[in-house]
Specification:
Layout: H1 3-9, E1 30-33, E2 36-39, E3 50-54, E4 59-63, H2 65-71, H3 73-84, E5 93-96, H4 100-110, H5 121-133, H6 137-147, H7 150-153, H8 157-166, H9 170-180, H10 198-225, H11 248-263, H12 273-283, H13 290-298, H14 303-312
Parallel strand pairs: 2-4, 3-5
Antiparallel strand pairs: 1-2, 3-4
Helix pairs in contact: 2-3, 4-5, 5-6, 8-9, 10-11, 11-12
This protein binds zinc ion.
Length: 323
Amino acid sequence: MSSSTRRKSARTASQATQPASSARRRSPSIEFVGMRRVALAPFNDPQADFVIQTQRTNTMFRVSLAILAQASSFFRQVESQRKQNPGLRDYEHLDVAESDATIETILRFIYPVADPVVQDLDDVCDAYQASVQYKFDYVAKRLREFMLSPRFMDNEPVRVYAIARRFGLAEETNIAARHVLRFPPNWPAYEEFDHISGRAYHELLTLHKNRGRKLVEFLHSFHLKEKITCMKCCPREATAALPRRQPEWWQIYVQQATPLLLDSPANEDIFSLEFILKVAIEAGITCSMCCTSIMQAAQPGGAIAILKEGLASKPFDLVVSNT
Ligand SMILES: [Zn+2]
């Protein structure tokens, strides 16, 4: 059962008496003709030489096979076979299991009209699956770009990860996984998980956990390489026997940043001067010179900027299996 089919089965009793696609109200370009529905312009051309009919609602999209053939090797083959077998209905009509919204989305990408309005990830996923099935390569590429748009990456990167894993999209999987690291690993049981393996899910969790640990390890050793100092807290130079003391504010900063890095390894709040001052003030640091040290560390090119670069440069080690 496809994800969209499951969504339809979850409709309420009152919705169940309506055509399936009406529940989502994503495809207003429909008009009724007797018991059948015909898509509105430009997919209602009575002179069209091909009909795509959605089985769920019997909606007919009257389209140009030549336009479809330009965008899809599947329809190029249909066009070729029609030339060899003129008059056969098989090459003039195609019943499809996809929803009206999915078909309209694909057609709007390949027709010289405005791009479709893709409202949510379900739309993207359904349309992508259909575009692959019917070999609309350009449409598939555009939909992969949609998956990576800030609208989805900023809010639902875990869902994008699962969709990318489902369809074997390596680049999109990696990009989505990086965005997942901006958030705690307490995501809900998304429906998209039904379509990926337990291993694929575990790989994301492992990435999150390992990334947090690796960055915290780097944070804790950072002061050994960089001169984070305070004239009052650590007045003397380090020696082999006696390493330099850490400024009071830095010790508090590391303590407070550690759980945040473990929770959200790509969270950038910890690099802000606001965060550093906040944790220092709330901890009630006693050193009167630490404030100067903080301002030096937080300036452009200072220790905090170097820390940020160092954390970001850590190899991204998502392990992606073939399952
Ligand atoms: Zn100090």
